[in-house]
Design a protein that fits this description.
By secondary structure, this protein is of the alpha+beta class. The protein folds into five domains: 91 residues, no CATH class; 47 residues, no CATH class; 116 residues, no CATH class; 56 residues, no CATH class; 190 residues, Lipoxygenase-1, CATH 2.60.60.30. The protein contains 23 helices and 20 strands. Strands 7-16-15-9-13-12 form a six-stranded antiparallel beta sheet, with no helix packed on it. Helix 1 crosses helix 8 and helix 8 packs across helix 9. It is globular.
């Protein structure tokens, strides 16, 4: 139950509390006020309704609940660990880089053991005494810094009153399971927990990875499985074996009970028609391993299920749908390819750009696309809309990202599309998307959310505090901008390096702040740590005075210099804070944290976001959620400057489909119906009863089915 409660608090910023039996006199009100004060110290507060409900509970209950709430929000903001800094006075008294290293060398020469290393033919500066490890205790750092001066501009995140734990968990479960966009790995794990708890399930589970998790519960309960392709069964088998339902990594299948084997084979037999057997080739090795566990020869009543494993072993031929389409395209038979693709509307729309460039008649292709639009998923429509609007103007380059956020660029060699063709295609998509939207009633939109990108995929986005989809743009308020990274190694020495690349408006003339350059005229680095042992790990910071920044593009990054990758470490997260210069305070102050997210991509260089100064002088942040492959070791900001610059420029210059677009479509359908729809960064307290609110945690629900 504690896990479910924590999920609701951190994902929805709602505290699940059932309706109390009656008012309980005592010290519940005092405990509620104390909890609110404790929450305020980490940048959270109780809504009026939540505070009133807590006040009616027994004091002991409030204290117990308060401990769990504080633990959840402190983890959300990154305050569950000790954030020490190498330079105790940071950001003050940061030494010049050369002077710092010269001082370490002088100290080493006075140490006979270290002096022998200094005089050897090769010198590893990282082995100098005292380097890379905290020279003081965390208590010493606290004593060296004044208390933070609270200001009205500090972040205060409101925790709302929720319903019962059962109702809140069910609502979160339905939101995740019914999502039209793929979920992050953390959300898939949450969905698994929720599916085991909730008896109900949504009517439609469009994303197949989500469906596999729902099917695990149905299999355990002996209910019919939700499958319409053979791959759905493979995903389910992987999930039941504790493996990867995305099928990105091979799974070691467990031994299945006889009832489970029968259910798998029965489901396979129902969907293994010849037209779908071609899907087996993509995962043929995993199918072979699964066949060894299911023993299909023991179930002659399911002959079509046996065909799946025959295809995997090469005994039976089966051409895949994609191979037939590719064969038609490769021989110039675009009309035949279009005719084939009309049987799979989503596949046709995904290939629309290519078909328009290669087909003999753009009009015929658009006619087919118009027919296909009614049968494709809402996510495909919205994704294609974003793609085509970026074809209106030539692009400097194309950026590609995989499911892990690994990114790379390539020159854009595609032939341009005619304006008339694009205009018609966009009109078709706008009409179909609008048709699928419901009546919002009275529509209220917070202007601050208009430049937030619609979440077309959540795979590379780790849940956290203040996280927005890739391509989103939001304002940065405050005089000081401070990045931070914290990590804790699992098994071997691990060295991450927080760095910042600064560029001019043309993405040139680079400078940087890192362990090789501690300070310049407007930025300071907190010092390099080369290991992060348990229990406290290690933290690094970069402080930037925005008014003094000489370059308008600032790209924070985290480099794996040595040791474990982000997904291998026991813990790794990045974030940023803003504050005014007069506030003082420790290097890490939770109430000034604006964003915090786990690092878990498979690359060795993380590019979470980019800060941009506009022509008006104001700073904004654009969300990247990207990872570079990097080198096996010794990654530095100087070594990936060109790649990082190209990637960031591609993201910055891309025209993302934003909430503004969906809000305009909803306004066209708004009526005087007796309900309200609100879209914003936070839901206000005074919304009418029965209102529908969309916040960053639920923006995926704006994508029509």
């Amino acid at each position: 139950m504690d896990t479910l409660e924590s999920l609701v608090i951190t994902r929805r910023l709602r505290v699940p509390i059932g309706t109390p039996a009656g008012s309980t006199p005592g010290w519940g009100e005092v405990a509620a006020r104390q909890l609110d004060a404790a929450l305020l110290s980490v940048g959270f507060t109780c809504s009026a309704a939540l505070l009133e409900r807590l006040s009616r509970l027994p004091g002991e209950t409030v204290v117990d609940l308060g401990v769990r709430i504080l633990a959840a929000v402190r983890g959300l903001v990154g305050d569950h660990v000790q954030h020490n800094a190498y330079f105790i006075d940071f950001p003050a008294n940061v030494p010049d880089t050369l002077e710092f290293w010269a001082g370490l060398l002088r100290e080493a020469l006075l140490d006979p053991v270290a002096a022998a290393r200094v005089q050897s033919p090769t010198l590893d500066l990282l082995t100098l005494p005292g380097y890379g490890r905290y020279p003081h205790a965390y208590a010493d750092l606290l004593a060296a810094h004044a208390e933070l001066i609270p200001l009205a501009g500090d972040r205060v995140t409101v925790l709302e009153l929720g319903g019962s734990l059962e109702s809140e968990a069910r609502e979160l479960y339905f939101s995740l399971a019914g999502s039209e966009v793929p979920l992050a790995a953390e959300d898939l794990a949450a969905l698994h927990i929720l599916a085991s708890f909730c008896a109900d399930e949504p009517e439609c589970v469009p994303v197949r990875e989500n469906r596999a998790i729902v099917n695990e519960v149905r299999l355990a309960a002996g209910r019919p499985l939700l499958v319409d392709t053979v791959t759905d069964v493979l995903r389910l088998a992987c999930g039941c074996s504790g493996g990867d339902v995305t099928l990105a990594t091979p799974t070691r299948f467990r031994s299945f009970r006889r009832a489970e084997r029968r259910a798998f084979l029965q489901a396979l037999d129902a969907v293994a028609i010849p037209a779908k057997l071609g899907d087996v080739h993509r995962y043929r090795e995993q199918w072979k391993r699964l066949g060894e566990r299911l023993h299909p020869h023991e179930y002659p009543q399911f002959p079509r299920a046996a065909h799946v494993f025959e295809v995997a072993r090469g005994v039976r031929e089966a051409a895949s749908f994609d191979s037939r389409v590719e064969a038609a395209l490769s021989t110039g038979r675009t009309a035949d390819a279009v005719e084939l693709l009309e049987n799979a509307p989503g596949a046709l729309l995904r290939r629309l750009d290519h078909l328009l460039r290669t087909g003999p008649s753009a009009s015929a292709v658009l006619d087919a696309a118009e027919r296909a639009a009614t049968g494709a998923s809402g996510r495909v429509l919205v994704s294609l809309r974003e793609h085509l609007q970026n074809r209106l103007a030539p692009a400097a380059g194309r950026v590609f990202t995989n499911r892990y956020g690994r990114a790379w660029t390539a020159p854009d060699t595609r032939a341009p599309l005619e304006q008339e063709v694009l205009s018609r295609a966009l009109a078709v998509l706008d009409e179909e998307i609008t048709r699928r939207l419901g009546d919002p009633g009275e529509l209220i939109v917070d202007p601050d959310v208009l430049d937030v990108a619609l979440p077309l995929s959540g795979k590379a986005v780790s849940p956290g505090l203040g996280i927005l989809p890739r391509g989103s743009l939001s304002r940065v308020d405050g005089e000081l901008l401070r990045f931070f990274v914290h990590w804790r190694q699992a098994e071997r020495r691990t060295d991450y390096d927080l760095s910042a690349l600064m560029l001019d408006a043309s993405y040139d003339n680079p400078t940087h702040i890192s362990w090789t350059n501690y300070t310049n005229g407007f930025a300071e680095y907190s010092g390099d740590l080369t290991e992060a042992p348990a229990p406290h790990g290690a933290s690094e910071f970069i402080d930037i005075r925005l008014a003094d920044a000489t370059q308008p593009i600032i790209i924070p990054q985290v480099n794996v210099y040595a040791g474990e990758q982000f997904h291998e470490a026991a813990e790794a997260f990045f974030g940023y804070m803003t504050r005014d210069a007069e506030q003082k305070g420790r290097p890490f102050e939770p109430r000034t944290v604006r964003m915090k997210s786990d690092l878990r991509g498979s690359g060795r260089v993380a590019l979470p976001l980019v800060f941009l100064r506009g022509d008006d002088g104001d700073w904004r942040v654009k969300w990247l959620h990207l990872y570079l492959k990097g080198h096996p070791g010794f990654n530095q900001v100087e070594g990936n400057r060109v790649t990082a610059s190209l990637l960031v420029r591609s993201i910055v210059e891309r025209d993302y489909l934003r909430v503004r677009y969906m809000a305009d479509l909803l306004r066209a359908k708004a009526s005087s119906a007796g309900h309200t729809t609100y879209i914003g960064l936070e839901a206000p307290d005074d919304l009418p009863a029965g209102s529908r609110a969309y916040t960053p945690a639920t923006l995926h629900e704006l994508i029509p089915a």
